[in-house]
Amino acid sequence: MSATDWWPVRAVLLVLSLIGIGLILRFARRSVSVALAVMLVLTLAVVDVAAAVNASYRYLPTLGVALGLGGADDIRDAYADRARGRVPENGLVVSATLPGTRSGFAAREAIAYLPPAWFGVDRPELPVLVLLHGTPGGPGDWADGGRATSTLDAFAAQHGGLAPVVVMPDVNGDFIGDTECVDSPGGDAETYLTADVPRAVQQQFSTRPPGTQWAIAGFSEGGMCALLLTLRHPGTFGTFGDFSGLLGPRAGETDEGVPATVAQYFGGSQREFAAHDPATLLGSRRFPGTGGWFEVGGTDTDSAAAATRLAPSARQAGIETCLVVLDGLGHSFEAWSAALRDSLPWMAARLGLVPPNPAATAKCRPPPS
Description:
Helix content is 43%, strand content 14%. The protein contains 12 helices and 10 strands. 46% of the residues are buried. Mean pLDDT is 85; it is low at 1-7 and 49-73.
C-alpha cells in the first residue's frame, strides 16, 4: 500500500480545509481570521503527515479499520460458544485483560485469537504464540495491518481447525510509548511480558504452560523484543520470530543510539545494557532446543544489517535458525505479514502442533556460519 491508498480521506480534508479558510477570511475579523486560518492549515498538515506515516508503515490499512469497524468480540461470547460446544468455521478474535499483577505495568487491553479447535468439547491444551507490536502502535496492529487473523484462519483450515492460541499483548503502555521490553523507568515491561502475561493467558485460555510450547514473535521493536525475551527467558519461550528488529534495545530508530539507550533504559549501567544485548548473550552462552526465525525486507537497511549479523551468531549458539530476506520490501506491514505467513508452519511444528513440513518451510535458509 502506498500513500495514495488513503487519497480519498486526504482529498476530502484538503477540500474542507480550503472551504474553511475561505469562510474564515470572508466573515471573521482580520486578526482572528488569520489566526484561525493558520490553525486550520497546521491541523491539515498534521493529519496529512499522520496519513502518510500510516501509509508507509500500514498501521491502519483501510478506512474501516481506522474508524474501528469490525472490532474484537467480547471474551464472554467466546466462552459461551465453547460452553455450547459450537465449533466456528474460523477462529475468533477477542479482547483480553492481562493485568500487570507482578510488574505493575499499566497495559492496554490485549487481543487474542482462539482457533476453531479451541471451541471443541474435547479440545487439547493448545500451544501459544505471542505476537508483539512496535512503536508507535498497539496490540491490534497484528490483527489489522499484520493480517494475522486471515493467516491463522488459513492455517487452521489446512489443519482441521488446529492453530496456536495467539495472544497480542501491549508492549508499551500507550500508542507512542517505547519500553524496548525491558524493566526501566518507563515501566516493567519485561516482567509483564515474561511473568504476568504467561500466567494470565494460561489461566484464561487453558493453554499449555510456558516453555517449549510457547513461541514469541514481533515486528520492529517487537521483533527485537521477541529475540531478547527468548534469550533472557528460555524457560518461558522456546521459539522466536524476529521480523525487522534492530540489534537490541535502542533509544531511537537506528542501532547508533547506544549511549542514550544506556542512560534512558539502564540507569547508565553498561553492565545492565550488556545483560540485555542479544549479541552479547549469544556470544556468552548456548541455547540448545531453541529455534529462531529472522525475516526482514531487503531495503530495510538497519534491520537487514541486524538480522544478517545476529542470525549467524544465533546458529553458532546452538539455535535452530532460519534467515529470510524479502527482496524489494522495507520496514512495513507488507514484510511483517509475509514473515508471519512464512514462519507460522515452522513455528507450529516446533510447538508440537503439527508435523514438520519441509515444503511449507522452503523459504527457511540457515544463515552462514
